[in-house]
Amino acid sequence: MVIAPQLDWIDTSQNIYRNDIPLISLEIPSVRWALLALAAGDLGSMLTSNSMEPRPDYLSMQDKLQHEALGPLTAHIYQLTHNPHPYGSLSVDELRGLLVSMFLLVSLGIRTGRGPIWRLHMRAAYAISHAWLAADDTHLEDDDGIEKSIIALLSEFQTWSSITAIDRPPNWNLRISCNRAEGPFHKYVSIIRHITELARDQRFSSNQSISTRNSDCLRKDIKEARRIATVQIQKIDFQTRQARQSFSAMIDIYYQATLIYFFRVKGDDCADQASCTIARNHLFESLRGVFDMESIAHCLAWPLLIAGTECHDCIDDQIFIEHKMLEVIKMTGGLDRARMMGLLRELWATGQQQTVVNWITMAKQWDRVGDPILIQ
């Protein structure tokens, strides 16, 4: 699949989209339909992102294939939810097919920027994931099973969708740790999730700031995330030298972006403001130093958003961020990135009015009117 390299962090031999899922699709029709729907939807999205009119047959093909996949899935979900057994009356193979198919449909909704649809599918995937984890006889001795990799990726989707919805608890809560999921950037995602949860705790408690103990622990964790990523990147057999260089640069990009997110959630401490300025300068330096974006473009939406929130009063930096985001969209599809740019433009407009609004506050306002953004 051409789309496969964009769907996992790094396109290695462990990319489940390139290897495991196509093999499963040969045996399970619903997985096959969902996989083909994902490919058709992505192709239509890419044509649109590159200012080309998608051929109508791609769009109708996507809807038809998705409908074909949902047919057997509906019956299986009913069996799953109307039986006291952890996985209803389904066999292990049926439950596996259900999990993989629904995961692909979640991915389809995200790739095509159809928020209500992927959130609906995510609720179903959440129930299926918990059924898999609760069924003792489906637990494999090998922690690197495709099912746990899928659940880990679904957990990451939850992290990216919760950042702009801090004012409310998530509709689902998946947590899993498995060797296969713990790639170079997994620790960063875990920390981003933890920071978001702390911000949510502040919102619903009388304590309006992150404790010194939590703050110190998070600073250490962010440094440890950079160390882990640096070590693991060296062990990966990249297909090109340029890809290795780009992912090595991304270690520092994610480090600086995560630091900035932490400082902004933490508050307005003067020392933090100074540290945030330093991180901001390093982040822009790292982003400007990436000359080969192709291998990492699908990973750059988050750091570009964070960098964009730090350039209220610099037109040149705003132009740079918008240019890079458009490059990302052309290379890897639209997803929810046009709306991310909409958020940034609105934020920049407030800066020009000399009333700088924290982007997290603005994201909350979007969420309150039912317009949350998925940062992917």
How would you characterize this protein structure?
The chain has 376 residues and is mainly alpha-helical. It has three domains: 4-159; 184-293, no CATH class; 300-376. The chain contains 14 helices and no strands. It has helices spanning 20-25, 29-49, 56-81, 92-111, 115-134, 146-162, 186-203, 212-235, 241-266, 270-288, 301-308, 315-332, 337-352, 359-368. Helix 9 (241-266) runs antiparallel to helix 10 (270-288) and helix 12 runs antiparallel to helix 13. The two termini are 20 Å apart. Mean pLDDT is 82; it is low at 138-143.
**Count of domains:** 3
Structural class given helices, strands, pairing? mainly alpha
Number of helices: 14
Shape: globular
Keywords: Nucleus
InterPro entries: Fun_TF
Main location: nucleus
Protein name: Transcription factor domain-containing protein
How would you summarize this macromolecular structure in one to three sentences?
With 376 residues, the protein is mainly alpha-helical.
